[in-house]
Design brief:
By secondary structure, this protein is of the alpha+beta class. It contains 4 helices and 10 strands; from the N terminus they run βββββββαββαβαα. The chain has helices at 58-70, 106-110, 125-130, 139-146, and strands at 4-6, 12-14, 19-25, 27-28, 31-39, 42-46, 49-51, 73-84, 88-99, 116-123. The strands form 3 sheets. Strands 7-3-9-8 form a 4-stranded mixed β-sheet, with helices on one face. The longest helix has 13 residues, at 58-70. The protein is globular. It starts with a strand and ends in a 10-residue tail after the last helix. 24% of the residues are buried.
């Protein structure tokens, strides 16, 4: 059964479709690769990744988006988690291996402006605790991996 909201006339409207996203955890030398964003005055960090295209699996989208955004080729390990929010489902994978020259690319490079900032950054666990990671429910998973765990049983 489809869910509906109502518009100002009281007629039902279909709810906004769920956005599907794939993201990757890349750890090197005890640091996590993140995309630092400053957008409309908001300063936050996200994992590299992006939208899953029609007829694309989360794993394929993860590899494609990582290559586009970071210049890195990745070989996926396990799926770390699937996060559900109001209108988004995010599939998060762990990189088993990565190679290439790190560089900002793809639409992120094309959309770069003073009001829309993208920057790749490596953060250790202490630095990660001090920044705004989105979605914030990722924090315990990422900290568990950085602190030597497998991420499967995040600490609260």
């Amino acid at each position: 059964m489809e869910e509906f909201d109502q518009n100002e006339t009281g007629l039902p409207l279909p709810l906004e479709p769920r956005r599907l996203r794939a993201a990757i955890v890349i750890i090197e030398g005890g640091r996590l690769l993140l995309m630092h964003r400053i957008k409309q005055g908001k300063d936050y960090y996200v994992l590299p990744g992006g939208n899953i295209k029609k007829n694309e699996t989360p794993a394929i989208a993860c590899v494609r988006e990582t290559r586009e955004e970071t210049g890195l080729n990745v070989w996926l390990g396990d799926k770390l988690c699937v996060l559900e929010s109001h209108n988004r489902t995010e599939h998060v994978f762990v990189a088993r291996e990565h190679r290439g020259m790190l560089r900002l690319g793809g639409p992120e490079l094309a959309k770069l402006s003073p009001d829309n900032h993208y920057e790749l950054a490596w953060l250790d666990a202490d630095a990660l605790r001090r920044v705004k990671l989105r979605p914030k429910s990722l924090l315990p998973y990422c900290l568990a991996l950085l602190e030597g765990g497998d991420g499967s049983t995040p600490q609260a």
